[in-house]
Amino acid sequence: MSRLLKSNLSHTPLFTVLVEVFSIVLGVLLALGVAEWREEAALRERAVFVRQSLAGEIDGNIRMLEDRLPYYEHIGGVIDSLATVHGEQADGKGLEIPGWVGLAPALLTASSWQAALNTRAMETMDFGQVAGLSAHYSFQDLYRRTQERIVEHAITGQGVTLGQLRMFMREFHQLGSELLRSCRETRGGLGDSPSSR
Length: 197
Known about the structure:
The longest helix is centred in the first third of the chain and has 73 residues, at 14-86. Mean pLDDT is 85; it is low at 193-197. The relative contact order is 0.14. The protein has one domain (3-196). The protein is rod-shaped, with a radius of gyration of 31 Å. The protein has helices at residues 2-11, 14-86, 111-117, 127-156, 162-190. By secondary structure, it is mainly α.
């Protein structure tokens, strides 16, 4: 076989061999370039989807906070009135609190953020945008953990006083208001049309 190859090469002009090698190398490079272009296009498309998903998630969290914050503020006022009459140390569980539907923690979601962290789509987003999202979701996680701590205390505590309930509602309202501002700012950074970024 080597004799056949040698005889074919000896009869083939060098220019023809170089052209064929160049064609093969060019074909491989083009194929790699097309594959890379397709991968980048898919990554950009995924980033647009992630921004839209994050925007939708934050919109839902804004609605949840807008729904809960007035309740926290109203019940805080009702508890203030009851504490004035019955005292700060009165058992909050033993009193009827008008309008009370429980602690009613805001159930905020972070599934789109978690999914975004587990994909390469964040790579195509602006660093400032990713940093803003990270700070926002860290604050949201702090809010969630605070809610869990308060609910756990209320459930496992020997008795919850009116003073404690007032503190819980104030904490829910204050942190919730700050988180709502963060949601709005973060949502504004994603723009109305994530595909235009």
